[in-house]
């Protein structure tokens, strides 16, 4: 069977690079212009899996993905792809000799954030303009050479859209990886990743706390701790119902089992917490 893989496009985004590293070339790979459009596509059955950015080592979570998953489109995480990220500055070839006069930098907000120090030092006066993806920024400037702008994107984008790289590896920290989520409507679906990648077990749980009960977060943490369930991340995001109301996303370095994780979940529910398992899956590293 040929799988249909939806990804944050257009061609040559970092998400596309992740898809080409982990999925067979014979899968059908379909670009979507935005993260929500890509997630809607898998929810509606237009594609078999959706691949979207979830977290970056320098800039943290991709809030649009997290919030759309929690508030709008209740999909499950069925896998994760971790990919090294190299950000390059590129311009239309007609500006290759005058690129230092640029007035504007266009890219995905995360790509701009990953290069803040460089941009502040080298182009303190340049305007920053956000695009839906690095690939969309590169395509835009290839079609609009009259704009005195540079784009931050990857090498594949410079080739696909015919741009000239004028400065390489401009991300502020050497260790720059992004984690992409593989999403599907049902939790137990296995993504058809290429063989040869070793995956690490992970389970992601969303927890809401009962209101006005002192110490519940401490009790939540101890439900995992005394079972020796290793928590690799806890993050809070606004519930969007008012200041001070949050949900928590918790990553465990364990696969779902029949005893420990269900036991911890029952304990949280007994405390009055809301609990939802977003997924139990393998994280694959490129
Ligand atoms: O815009 C892209 O190319 C994406 O795939 C999202 C993204 C942006 C910056 C770093 C990693 C992923």
Write the layout of secondary structure elements.
Blueprint: E1 4-8, H1 14-22, E2 28-32, H2 35-43, E3 49-56, E4 60-61, H3 63-72, E5 76-84, E6 88-91, E7 104-107, H4 109-114, H5 116-122, E8 127-130, H6 134-143, E9 149-153, H7 155-160, E10 164-167, E11 177-184, E12 199-208, H8 216-225, E13 231-238, E14 246-252, H9 260-270, E15 274-285
Parallel strand pairs: 1-2, 1-3, 5-15, 7-8, 7-9
Antiparallel strand pairs: 3-4, 3-11, 5-11, 6-9, 6-10, 12-14, 12-15, 13-14
Helix pairs in contact: 8-9
What does this structure look like?
The record marks 178 as: Essential for prephenate dehydratase activity. Its EC number is 4.2.1.51. One of its GO terms (biological process) is L-phenylalanine biosynthetic process. This is Prephenate dehydratase. It comes from Metabacillus mangrovi. Strands 1, 2, 3, 4, 5, 11, 12, 13, 14 and 15 form a ten-stranded mixed beta sheet that branches. The chain has three domains: 4-85 and 176-184, 3-Layer(aba) Sandwich (D-Maltodextrin-Binding Protein, domain 2), CATH 3.40.190.10; 88-167, Periplasmic binding protein-like II (D-Maltodextrin-Binding Protein, domain 2, 3-Layer(aba) Sandwich), CATH 3.40.190.10; 199-280, ACT domain (Alpha-Beta Plaits), CATH 3.30.70. It contains nine helices and 15 strands. The longest helix is centred in the last third of the chain and has 11 residues, at 260-270. The two termini are 25 Å apart. The model has no long low-confidence stretch (mean pLDDT 96). It is globular. Helix content is 27%, strand content 33%. It has 286 residues and is an alpha/beta fold. It binds 3-phenylpyruvic acid.
